[in-house]
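Let us practice reading a record.
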Amino acid sequence: MPSGKRAKQQRRAAASEGRTPPPVRSNGGGPGLSRFSRRTLIIVGVVIVVLIGLGVGLPLALRSSGGGTDTGPTGFEPISKLGKLASPGELGPPGPEGPPLEGGADLAPAGAPQPGGTVDGISCDASEQTLFHIHARLTIFVNGRPVRVPAGVGIAEPQAVQTTRGPVVVRGACFSWLHTHAADGIIHMESPIQRAFTLGNFFDVWGQPLSRTQVGPASGNVTALVDGKVWLGDPGDIALRAHRQIQLEVGTPLVGQLRITNWHGL
């Protein structure tokens, strides 16, 4: 006899004799509960995976929107660890882009890849790319004296026009995704894709060496200041982020960081 009919007859017989009928069981009994438990665990597992993905992916997306993260062995320490610092002097007069011009002579002549050339995966295109467009600022001191990042870095055959605030490069044979328009230390990051850039990338585009002991043609111990803190890693690993201010110092005396507060819309 089928088990379902047998169970019904048992319950009827028990009821007629005044006994407690056996409990009603669902089809399949225990295995049904097991299947439900497995389903629940699978759903919970999927939810956990999704939450972990959001927890990892969202911070990565937020960091990349700022231009990238610092690479290699990194870390900062307070600028007070350097002891007493010499004064960096006053900011220069406003330049053609708005931020002040840097003082001193050019650290090295402007350099750039040839049209169509690529450095560190960064190409030199016929026109500026602005899908991803942010700016950072670089200042350099050698033995306590300021030197300039020249206009036209990353722009092949740069052509400048004179303004009331100084020359600015407006044309060239090609524009690298990292370049400068004026001698104000402003590094333009103008790329057709959103990607991370480092200070080392900028020096590679410039065609100048950068290490813990050399900045372009200047050699000696290199101290890097980033937004008022001392950078402990290789200066080439410093990420170029929106409005990040970087100061490289070769040799001594060390000076305080010369920072701007107005980016003039950049």
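A brief commentary: Residues 74-250 form one domain.
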